[in-house]
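Technical annex B. To support the medicinal chemistry partners, we prepared a structural model of the target in complex with glutamine, based solely on the information shown next.
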Amino acid sequence: MMEQFLENLVEECRGYIGEGNVATYIPELAKMDPNQLGICVISTTGKVYRAGEYMNPFTIQSVVKTIILLQALIDNGVDFVKERIGVEATGKPFDAINMRAGSLESQHINPMVNMGAIAMCSLIKGKTEKEKFERLLNLTRKLACNDKIEVNQDVYLSEKRTGHKNRALAYLLKSYGLIEGDVDEVLDTYFKACSISVNCEDLACIGYCFCSHGKLPRKEERVFESEYATYVNAILTTCGMYDGSGEFAINVGIPAKSGVGGGIMGVVPTRMGIGIFSPELDEKGNSLAGIRVLEKLSKEMYLSIF
Ligand code: GLN
């Protein structure tokens, strides 16, 4: 019944395809077929529900910011991370240069915007940049219960070639002492992290770990401290959909994170993890049809936490 409900929802929301645009500022993403919409839901009853193109691959993009934040918390604890990367919403687009006259301070950034995520990459522990990224990739695989997850090399190279704004943000951070280590190496970790290839089921599984405060589906093993899920889920509620987070909180009302690859990860605390994919974005850079699916799902199943 749930699977049929999701099928109907996907079919209905395919009607929104054509109203948005696939991301083009990363040339490789412009090649995505817009006619894709998929969903996977993993519920705490242990059941997995799938509909549409749930198995199609896409790059994780900004959804990885949740995993970078988690890795930074695991490696350094709450106090250390909070001191370096602020937690207040910027109310600005994800790639904004958010600073006032005077100096750039940690309170001007948060983990869900590019500046914060780039700064967090330098907080991941590891002797070399390669080791830092391997640890992040392994955490991603663990949370997604999928050890086959890899980087999409074409998207990675495309981002690296064209990511001038991110480079500018990183150098600005460095000039104010908000980034540790070699800027180009930290950026490389960020570009690779954004280019990790996933599908809806992977995102649903990662979302599940946050909804269950650190446990994998059908397992008792705790992957991370419950306290870190509280931290991440709260930030997702206020900043996960960038400057569309307030509207999303009213209409959907669950912690969620979007990426310009078209993915959205939803977290319904204690109930379910959700993975959605549709490449066309709205003007804020969030999956347009994906948000419609979440809105309808939330209303039908009373998912809003508010
Ligand atoms: N890799 C993208 C960027 O840095 C991620 C942005 C996003 O998904 N919103 O611009």
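Notes passed to the chemistry partners:
Strands lie at 38-43, 48-52, 58-59, 197-198, 256-258, 263-268, 272-277.
The CA atoms of residues 59 and 197 lie 4 Å apart.
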